[in-house]
């Protein structure tokens, strides 16, 4: 018989051979095992969570970092105190709160007084322990709530009027709002200058003048709303009524409530200056109302 020689590969050895195959070493892993925080390899990278935790703990444990954080907090607190100090220097928060101390009953009665002031008899501001009563307890006290809400309502109503006339755009509405605000600021500055030149001794402040000047927004709203409902004829009727009512209201309020009886006891020339100042402020109101509302009614 023919004998066939058997050859074996290098990687295979028969069982029982004295020469065993060498075990090949495991290939290096593509990625390090970071499940335990840091890799066991010398060049391993920390896990994302472990890195943040390490940095935070390192910063919290670093005395220099603690000093820097304390210094930053001190600077922030000092800056906050400076802001509050400068704010109280130019704007008294307590005085500002006084002009917003209103309730529903006061707002309803004050709106009625602005539209129908002719039947009102007592115009004197009431005092308690040498301090004026808040608006919710005194109908004659000026407030800033009605002027603020009336200004916002006027801007919204102007947007509606412009939209009905197909003339609405954000630029036009912004110009309308800024113009109304600038006119009030100019009026307040003119009144302050007039009071200074006329040497009027009174407790009138900027907030008082801003409140009295802002009441015109109520008449502007009524005029525009009437014009939208009844046309230009209704607009002019409402304009005449609200303007005359506002003029009467300002004359009585400034002469009785704002200027006070002490300021009316001066010399005759000073009293005439005070009267001219009051009448001039009142006579200027219809012009401003017309200028800010006529373009909204067509």
Write the layout of secondary structure elements.
Blueprint: H1 48-61, H2 63-90, H3 93-99, H4 104-115, E1 127-128, E2 131-132, H5 145-164, H6 170-197, H7 206-214, H8 216-258, H9 260-263, H10 268-283, H11 285-293
Antiparallel strand pairs: 1-2
List keywords for this structure.
298 residues; mainly alpha; two-stranded antiparallel ribbon; 1% strand
Structure description:
The protein has eleven helices and two strands, in the order H-H-H-H-E-E-H-H-H-H-H-H-H. The chain is mostly helical. A hairpin with a 2-residue loop joins strand 1 (127-128) and strand 2. Belongs to the YIF1 family. It is a multi-pass membrane protein. This is Protein YIF1.
Short synopsis of the structure:
The chain has 298 residues and is mostly helical. Helices cover 64% and strands 1% of the residues. α5 runs antiparallel to α8, α7 packs across α8 and α8 runs antiparallel to α10.
- Mean of all residue-level pLDDT scores: 77
Strand content bin: under 5%
Which class do the helix and strand fractions yield? mainly alpha
Cα distance spanning the termini: 126 Å
Organism: Equus caballus
Family: Belongs to the YIF1 family.
Keywords: Endoplasmic reticulum, Golgi apparatus, Membrane, Protein transport, Transmembrane, Transmembrane helix, Transport
Protein name: Protein YIF1
């Amino acid at each position: 018989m023919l004998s066939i020689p058997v050859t074996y590969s290098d990687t295979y050895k028969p069982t029982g051979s004295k020469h065993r195959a060498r075990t090949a070493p495991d290939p290096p892993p593509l990625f390090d095992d970071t499940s335990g925080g840091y890799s066991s390899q010398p060049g391993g990278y920390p896990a994302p969570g472990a890195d943040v935790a390490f940095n935070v703990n390192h910063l919290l444990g670093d005395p220099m970092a603690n000093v820097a954080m304390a210094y930053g907090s001190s600077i922030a607190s000092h800056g906050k105190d400076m802001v509050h100090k400068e704010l109280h220097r130019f704007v008294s928060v307590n005085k500002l709160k006084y002009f917003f101390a209103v309730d529903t009953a006061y707002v309803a009665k004050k709106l009625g007084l602005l539209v129908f002031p002719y039947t009102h008899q007592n115009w004197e501001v009431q005092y308690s322990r040498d301090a004026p009563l808040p608006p919710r307890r005194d109908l004659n006290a000026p407030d800033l709530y009605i002027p603020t809400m009336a200004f916002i309502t006027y801007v919204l109503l102007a947007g509606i009027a412009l939209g009905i006339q197909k003339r609405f755009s954000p630029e036009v509405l912004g110009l309308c709002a800024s113009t109304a605000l600038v006119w009030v600021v100019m009026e307040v500055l003119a009144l302050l200058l007039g009071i200074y030149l006329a040497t009027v001794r009174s407790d009138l402040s900027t907030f008082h003048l801003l409140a009295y000047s802002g009441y015109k927004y109520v008449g502007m709203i009524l005029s525009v709303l009437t014009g939208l409902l009844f046309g230009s004829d209704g607009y002019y009727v409402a304009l005449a009524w609200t303007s005359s009512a506002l003029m009467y209201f300002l004359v009585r309020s400034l002469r009785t409530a704002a200027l006070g009886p002490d300021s009316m006891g001066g010399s005759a020339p000073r009293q005439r200056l005070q009267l001219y100042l009051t009448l001039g402020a009142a006579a200027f109101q219809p012009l401003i109302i017309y200028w800010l509302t006529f373009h909204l009614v067509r």
